[in-house]
Amino acid sequence: MESIKTIQLKILNPDFDLVETMQKYSKGMNYVSEIVFTNGKVIPARKLQPMVYGYLRDKIGLKSQVSCNIPRQVAGTYKTIVELAKIGMSYWQRITYSSNSMTLSYKRDYDITENSVSITTFSHGRKTYKIQNYLYALQFFKAPWKFAASKVVKHKDGTYYFHLTVSQEIPDKKIEDASSFLGIDVGMNYLAVASTTDKKCKFFAGGGIKNQRNIYKKMRARLQSKGTSSAKG
């Protein structure tokens, strides 16, 4: 079983290069998003990449690895929308990406130490930025924790943070070692009812989700009656 954690580390010296890179990144994401939305259904990443790679590289000027990452991310987002639509929790819609967030691959797009993070920027290649670390976070810079795809995020107060994602494999517990068991019943009025063998019980109200499903159901029916592409997928 994989254990995943995200640690927020403040970037102490953000600059124009970092901001510009995030803007170019979101421009590329939105270009690819428009391609998929106009298509009216999900385009697999392996087909989407050759369709958009040239534009991302030549017109926007993104680095090679970022130009490969973007179609994978966009395809994944639209795939999630379709899956949620199947259970009435979403519908086919254009996704717009903000320049306040940028996802980076470890080693390819970023590297990190306890005191700094180096990021591949649009204009000046790899640049090193100081980070404010914390005592509790230092444990995640050591084995068995491994760095994974992470994000640069601009927070509402205008500060920039590196949202570092780390993971490690932990052994699955043997069933014979369990002291109690959990059972879950799924419903409509109650989204779920969880109960344990030691007679503890918790109800998860589903009224809000039920109402949301009804809203999407009516919206789909209305769009289908008009024959719009938004009702497909």
Structure overview:
The chain has 233 residues and is α+β, with helices and mostly antiparallel strands. The protein folds into two domains: 172 residues, no CATH class; 57 residues, no CATH class. It is built from four helices and eleven strands, in the order βαααββββββββββα. A hairpin with a 3-residue loop joins β9 and β10. α1 packs across α2 and α2 packs across α3.
Domain count: 2
Binned strand content? 25-35%
Low-confidence stretches: none
Which class best fits the helix and strand makeup? alpha+beta
Secondary structure blueprint with pairings:
Elements: E1 2-11, H1 16-39, H2 45-60, H3 64-86, E2 101-104, E3 110-112, E4 116-121, E5 125-132, E6 146-147, E7 150-154, E8 160-169, E9 182-186, E10 190-196, E11 201-205, H4 207-226
List the keywords.
4 helices, single chain, eight-stranded antiparallel β-sheet, 28% strand, 233 residues, globular, three-stranded antiparallel β-sheet, 2 domains, alpha+beta
